[in-house]
Every structure is written in C-alpha cells, then in structure tokens.
C-alpha cells in the first residue's frame, strides 16, 4: 500500500534524523530514541515493576511511577522476557510495531469515510506533524493511537464488542485513553436513540467494556495510595497535572516571552490553536459522532488540564480525526495541482523532521 510505504519512509527518515543529531551532540547511540523523558519511567517499570518515586526538592512533591499506565511497560516486559532484547530495544520495537498498526487503522477510517486519496493524505499528514517524532520514540502514543483507531473503526462498522475491547486497551495505555471509551459510549447511546431501543447485538456489552481499563487502573492506584477515589488525582497532582480549566496554560503564555525558551513553546501554541480551528471544521463537516467525540475529549483534556505546555502537542498526536479537513483539502489540491501539492508536503515534511530531531535530542523542554 503506497500510503503506508510513504508513512514508513517519512518516519524512518525522522528516526535517522534523531540518530544523526544524537551523534553530532555526542549522546550515546539511541539515547533520545529509547531513554529520554517519560521513556525512562516506562522502561524502569518494565524492568522492576511499580513502586519507584522521586522527591522534588524545590517543592517537596513526591512523584511516583503510578502516574504511568501499565499496558506499554507490560508489553515491553513480555517481549524482553521472550527474547534477549534489552528493555530499550523492546520498547522501540513495540512502539514501531504499534505505529504501523495505527497508521493502517487511520488509513482504514479515512478510506471508509472519504475514499483512497483522502485516506492516503490523512496518513501522510499524520506522519509529518511537527511532533510526529514521538512516533519514532519509546512512548505510548503509538500504542494508544493503534488501539483507539481500530476501536473507532469497529464502531463505524458496528462491531461493538470489538470496539469496547479495544477501547479498554486504549484506557490501559495512558491517562487520555478514556477518550476512546467516551467515544464508544457516546456512539452506542446515539445508536440506541436512533434505533429507538432496538439496539444491535453486543452494543451495550461494547459500551460497558470500554471504560473498564482506564477505571480499573485508576482505582488500583487509589487502592495503593489508601484513597480509592482520589488517590490517582493526587498522584497526578504531584506531576503538576490537574484540572485547572486552562489557568495553567494561560499563566505560562503570560511569562513565555521573557523565558527565552526556544521554539518549543511557540510551536506548541501554534499546534494547539490550529487544533481548535480544525476541531471546529471537523464539526462543521458532519464527521461521524465517535470521531468528533474522541477528538473533542482529547482537545478538552489538553486545554483544561495543567502540565508542561510544550508537551501538549504530543498529547494531541493521537487525535488524528482533526486532520480530516486538511486531508480533504490536500486531496482536492492533488487532483488540480500535483506538483505544488508535492512541494508543499515536501516542505512540511522537511521542517517536521528537523524540528522533531531538535525536540528529541536537543530541546531542554519536556517532550
């Protein structure tokens, strides 16, 4: 399939760019791919299980690894145990395998809704986003996107138990995994109303399955802390991740210019602003409800929950339905002006690869 071949080529080029910048910067081989930022926590969980914590001397807060969901480190541990691979290499293989599965699922959704050309551009755009370098790293976004994309595709096909089971896995992959469950549940309720109660077989089973992964882990963390209902929220609060309805990002924006933080924050502002605009276009385009709900929940979490603003574009990376309006526009441009469209995409890809290598290997801001 040409679209997936293009996707793989772009991401291989992105991986090579990170390795090259690592070498130029004098970093150990593969450090930025498998041993940077959150990757270190996931690999430690895979090797030693849960229970590690770090005290932040400036604030006194205690950060624990309970903030990180279990599916990805569990898969790393399993692959590493079945082979002679280190956890770092196993983490990369899991991520790279999942990103291909995710790209295939995204293409399947685009093809079902708008045909082959739009599907190809949808996958191509996802490969060339400014923060798509994350798809080459030992992070959870590839796993989450793979589970969510195929869950949403199952909803579009009316395969409710499959959709619920995949949403359950998405909920075990990362905190924002609840978006997949909300999308499945919303679609199930809409279908029940549309059918006036004569629902397809397995609909309610799928709707019930979806939230179990996310809720199960949150309650488990609560049990470990001794506060079943609020323990997980306290764990996230120590990581400066809590519901603040945008107050944190607004405060950050106020002080961004004198900080001199490089391109990470301005690019994050641009990506988040563009995502809001694309979500409005997605709604106006009468996109199927589960895709709108999934993207809307992810966007709401980014806007309403505090945390490093430079990481927010990464949190939006799984919200691939937001790219549908742009993919449709590029498909129309491709039919009329192929040369110009190729030039535009080539420029976008080049900028993305260079910026991604900077983010992964050089930026002092959290990815």
Automatic annotation (TrEMBL):
The keyword Glycosyltransferase applies. Its main location: endoplasmic reticulum. The chain crosses the membrane at residues 88-106, 118-140, 160-189, 201-223, 264-284, 291-309, 315-335, 342-361. Pathway: Glycolipid biosynthesis; glycosylphosphatidylinositol-anchor biosynthesis. It is found in: Endoplasmic reticulum membrane. It is a multi-pass membrane protein. GO terms for cellular component: membrane. Residues 1-20 form the signal peptide. GO terms for molecular function: alpha-1,6-mannosyltransferase activity; GPI mannosyltransferase activity. Keywords: Endoplasmic reticulum, Glycosyltransferase, GPI-anchor biosynthesis, Membrane, Signal, Transferase, Transmembrane, Transmembrane helix. GO terms for biological process: GPI anchor biosynthetic process. InterPro entries: PIG-V/Gpi18. This is Glycosyltransferase RgtA/B/C/D-like domain-containing protein.
């Amino acid at each position: 399939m040409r679209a997936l071949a293009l996707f793989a080529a772009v991401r291989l080029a992105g991986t090579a760019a990170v390795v090259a910048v690592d070498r130029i910067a004098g970093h150990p081989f593969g450090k930025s791919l498998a041993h940077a930022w959150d990757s270190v926590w996931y690999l430690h969980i895979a090797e030693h299980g849960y229970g590690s914590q770090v005290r932040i001397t400036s604030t006194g807060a205690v950060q624990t690894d309970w903030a990180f969901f279990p599916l990805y480190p569990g898969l790393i541990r399993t692959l590493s145990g079945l082979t002679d691979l280190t956890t770092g290499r196993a983490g990369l293989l899991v991520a790279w395998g999942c990103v291909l599965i995710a790209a295939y699922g995204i293409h399947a959704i685009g093809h079902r809704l708008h045909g082959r050309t739009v599907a190809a551009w949808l996958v191509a755009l996802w490969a060339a986003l400014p923060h798509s370098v994350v798809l080459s790293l030992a992070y959870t976004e590839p796993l989450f996107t793979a589970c969510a994309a195929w869950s949403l595709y199952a909803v579009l096909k009316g395969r409710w138990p499959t959709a619920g089971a995949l949403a359950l896995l998405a909920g075990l992959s990362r905190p924002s995994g609840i978006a997949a469950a909300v999308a499945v549940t919303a679609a199930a309720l809409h279908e029940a109303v549309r059918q006036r109660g004569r629902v397809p077989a397995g609909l309610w089973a799928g709707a019930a399955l979806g939230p179990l992964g996310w809720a199960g882990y949150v309650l488990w963390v609560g049990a470990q802390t001794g506060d079943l209902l609020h323990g997980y929220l306290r764990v996230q609060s120590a990581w400066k991740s809590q519901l603040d309805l945008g107050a944190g990002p607004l405060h950050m924006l106020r002080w961004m210019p004198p900080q001199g933080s490089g391109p990470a924050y301005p690019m994050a502002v641009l990506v988040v602003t563009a995502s809001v605009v694309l979500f409005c276009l997605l709604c106006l385009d009468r996109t199927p409800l589960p895709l709108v709900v999934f993207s809307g929940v992810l966007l709401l979490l980014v806007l309403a929950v505090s945390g490093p603003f430079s990481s927010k574009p990464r949190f939006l990376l799984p919200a691939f339905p937001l790219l549908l309006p742009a993919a449709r526009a590029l498909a129309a441009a491709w039919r009329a002006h192929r040369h110009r469209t190729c030039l535009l995409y080539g420029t976008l890809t080049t900028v993305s690869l260079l910026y991604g290598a900077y983010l992964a290997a050089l930026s002092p801001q959290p990815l």
